[in-house]
Amino acid sequence: MQCKRAVTCCDTAMSLGQATRVRVWLFGILLVCAARPLFGQVVRIPLPNSNFPISQGVWVDRTLYLSGMLDPGVMKGSKGDTKTQTENAILAIQKALSAQKLTLGDVVMMHVYLAGDPAKDGKMDFAGFMESYTKFFGTKEQPNKPARSAMEVKALASPDALVEIEVIAVRPGKTAQ
Questions:
Q1: Neighbour count for residue 161 (Cβ, 10 Å)
Q2: Looking at residue 8, what is its pLDDT?
Q3: Are residues 84 and 150 in the same domain?
Q4: Distances (CA, A) of 106 to 38, 68, 93, 100, 110
Q5: 53 and 13 assigned to the same domain
Q6: Does 150 fall in a domain?
Q7: Which residue from 175, 108, 103 is spatially nearest to 142, judged by alpha carbons?
Q8: Measured between alpha carbons, how far is residue 109 from residues 112, 148, 169, 172 in Å?
């Protein structure tokens, strides 16, 4: 019985061992090429007018991860209730998405952090949140609804903040930018 067979590849005779190494090498190249979309380019978006050590968002291929956003007025001393802060936070998210040529309809995941409202005996105002949320998602004009988690937290980074929202959005199509 013969242990070695001759394998012809590109008009060249190879031993079985050489042919196996070539096949393994070609299979490795194929895997790298097939997996390339999984290891996409990472692009960080700086936080506007800030030297705070976070990014406003991070692109990974077609996916944009936006940092949590507050009602911009809270940082300027405006308190507002949960309904108002939710609306203003979503408008800030809409503006950040628009700068990246995305819309609220591209949002696929939302995490909502609600602090207890002193006007509601320290409990989160989920109804106030939903009143503003439903102006932007699941409407006739914008029917897309993201997957969403909403939770009560003890406090947020700004003492007057009642709402912080972070989103993940995906650009339709094949490329990130």
A1: 21
A2: 42
A3: yes
A4: 20, 17, 12, 11, 11
A5: no
A6: yes
A7: 103
A8: 10, 6, 7, 15
Range of the domain at 25: 7-38
Whether residue 100 is contained in a domain is answered as yes
Give how far the C-alpha of residue 120 lies from the chain's centroid of Cα atoms, to the nearest Å: 32
**Structure tokens given for 154:** 């003890």
Domain count, the chain: 2
Angle between helical axes of 82-99 and 126-133 (0-180°, round to 10)? 40
Residue 14 lies in a domain: yes
136 & 50 share domain: yes
Residue 177: inside a domain, yes or no?
no
Task: Give the closest residue to 171 by CA, choosing from 97, 111, 110, 112.
Answer: 97
**Per-residue model confidence as pLDDT tens digits over 44-94:** 999 988 898 999 999 999 999 999 999 999 989 888 999 999 999 999 999
**Two tokens, residue 108:** 């696929």
Listed in sequence order, the residues at least 6 apart from 66 whose beta carbon sits closer than 8 Å to its beta carbon are 56, 57, 93, 96, 97, 166, 167, 168, 169
- Which residue has better confidence, 23 or 31? 23
